[in-house]
Amino acid sequence: NYFGPFCNKFCRARDDFFGHHVCDAGGNRVCSEGWMGAECRQAICKQGCHPVHGYCKQPGECRCHYGWQGPNCEECVTFPGCVHGSCTEPWKCVCDTNWGGLLCNKDLNYCGTHQPCLNSGTCVNTEPNEYQCICEEGFRGRGCEIVEHACLSSPCANGSTCVEDSSGFQCLCPAGWTGPTCTEETDECGPSPCAHGGTCQDLHNGFQCSCPPQWTGKTCQLDADECELQLCVNALACRNLIG
């Protein structure tokens, strides 16, 4: 452990809290890989680790100081709850364009973001997260969604009756028609009215069932009387059975 011409230079290799080094032929300390400093006690951090916001206790790592984050500790931590904002120093919340409030959660351009006004209405931003629609003539409602005197344009088809209500209008459809303006023909086959495997054909305001040979009736609900076909030859009588 002693070096030099007079053996008066002390050097001992170590790898502990007090240093991480070996000794060369002249008794000089040579830091182990990943360590530096006069005592070889300072770890060399991961390449790219921020010299101010990051630190390391072991070679190759990068630990962040409080308020900083990211692989190299280059990103500041925003104020808790910050929604549409960023920071240049920890615990700040600098709002993005068109956002305001302490947490940057108030939409300053609600009209542009959501376009809430219908039917060519004009939207005006009044307060954060608030707006007002200026409706064209003939429309009303918060979003200009209600048509005034809607029945004047005769929107209901096929002889239906138009009734104005709070949402604009409602069409009372006659039999055989359905839909918001009574333009869709009712599908009478929808409820599957034909029994015993009968095939349903949709007609205007009605339906027709094509029944299997052993069944009859409007909905194939009646048992056909096969005896009427005189199928029995040289028999005293014919007895009809179900199906």
From TrEMBL:
Disulfide bonds join 11-23, 31-40, 64-73, 135-144, 173-182, 211-220. It is found in: Membrane. Keywords: Developmental protein, Disulfide bond, EGF-like domain, Glycoprotein, Membrane, Repeat, Signal, Transmembrane, Transmembrane helix. Signal peptide: none annotated. The keyword Disulfide bond applies. Residues 41-74, 107-145, 147-183, 185-221 form the EGF-like domain. One of its GO terms (biological process) is axon guidance. Its main location: membrane. Putative Notch ligand involved in the mediation of Notch signaling. PANTHER family: NEUROGENIC LOCUS NOTCH HOMOLOG PROTEIN 1 (PTHR45836:SF23), SLIT HOMOLOG (PTHR45836). This is Delta-like protein. It comes from Polyodon spathula. The gene is JAG1.
